Amino acid sequence: MTRPLSTLIHACFACLIATTLLAQPPAGDDLLKQGEEKLRAGDLNGALDIYERAAKTNPSSTQAHLQAGIVLDLLGRYNDARKHLTEAIQTASTREEKDRADRTMAMSYAFSRDCKAAEEYQKKVYDRRIADKDYDGAAEIANELARVCLESDAVDRAEQWYRTGHEQALKADLKPAEKDLWDFRWEHAQARIAARRGNAPEAQTHVAAAKQLLDKGTNPNQAPFYPYLVGYVAFYGGDYKTALAELQKGNQEDPFILSLIAQTYEKLGDKEQATATYRKVLESTAHNPTGAFARPLAQKKVGTN
To answer: Could you tell me the fold of the domain covering 224-305?
Structure first.
């Protein structure tokens, strides 16, 4: 039986609407994109408003809670951040989501220099990688946690985790260049640990060992980390002129290096340059160890979020 033309028109119109709706991203995804744009533009409060709306619109959105937590950390509102990050951990369903949620919570505690609390969450990721026999991946997590502990003044715990990271890495099927890389990281870590303990001779021994590994030429992409190391050791050894000269050779987009430069300017009595450098730190929205220790100090020094 032939259907009336009006019925066919209505049916086609309904199909068109359905097709259009299917082609459009869900409202939550659209909000996440808007939030990302605000974050890239440095509008933290604007980004937070959007991410919180996304989380309210879709309470089971792990991504929305993660992003809201990250922005709240950047604003220095750590307790509020951890409420969202707890939701992210609870809603995470895939392995990737679980790892990211736990690591993000660990970084939240890095912002408040709490090695012990960060370890609670970072170790979950580490244990999952060990269970998978992903030794290289486990080593990366161990080193990340070690750095959190070192800059949280838990130096002994940092040494334990750096050692663990190196040991796990060596269990992987490493090529010669990869072994050199992990040996370089271990010497780099030991130099910084010695510097934080005030043991300048030991620190210099490890700096020299790191340079020897770098000079083999097997890991040229690690070269930028050497002046940062020399500057770090010089800073904690009280040689501020050397520290400034070396740190300025490092990555000037790295908020942690910028923070060390700002602190060095303070030690040298140059308050104007110190303040200007702290302001550069605040241009970064990094939610990782480099940002976790640089941003809170810069906020305190400049007096703004």
So the answer is: 1.25.40
> In a structure prediction context, what are the per-residue pLDDT tens digits for the chain, which is 305 residues long?
444 434 433 444 334 333 333 333 444 689 999 999 999 999 999 999 999 999 999 999 999 999 999 999 999 999 999 999 999 999 999 999 999 999 999 999 999 999 999 999 999 999 999 999 999 999 999 999 999 999 999 999 999 999 999 999 999 999 999 999 999 999 999 999 999 999 999 999 999 999 999 999 999 999 999 999 999 999 999 999 999 999 999 999 999 999 999 999 999 999 999 999 999 999 999 999 999 999 999 999 998 65
CATH of domain 95-194+207-216: 1.25.40
Contact 246, 231 (CB under 8 A): yes
Range(s) within the chain of domains with CATH label 1.25.40.10: 25-91, 224-305
Q: What share of the chain is helix, strand, coil (3-state, %, to 5)?
A: 80, 0, 20
Contacts 24+ apart (CB under 8 A), 114-118: 114/152, 115/148, 115/149, 115/152, 115/154, 115/157, 115/158, 116/154, 118/145, 118/148, 118/149, 118/152
Fold of 25-91: 1.25.40
Cβ 167 vs Cβ 136: under 8 Å: no
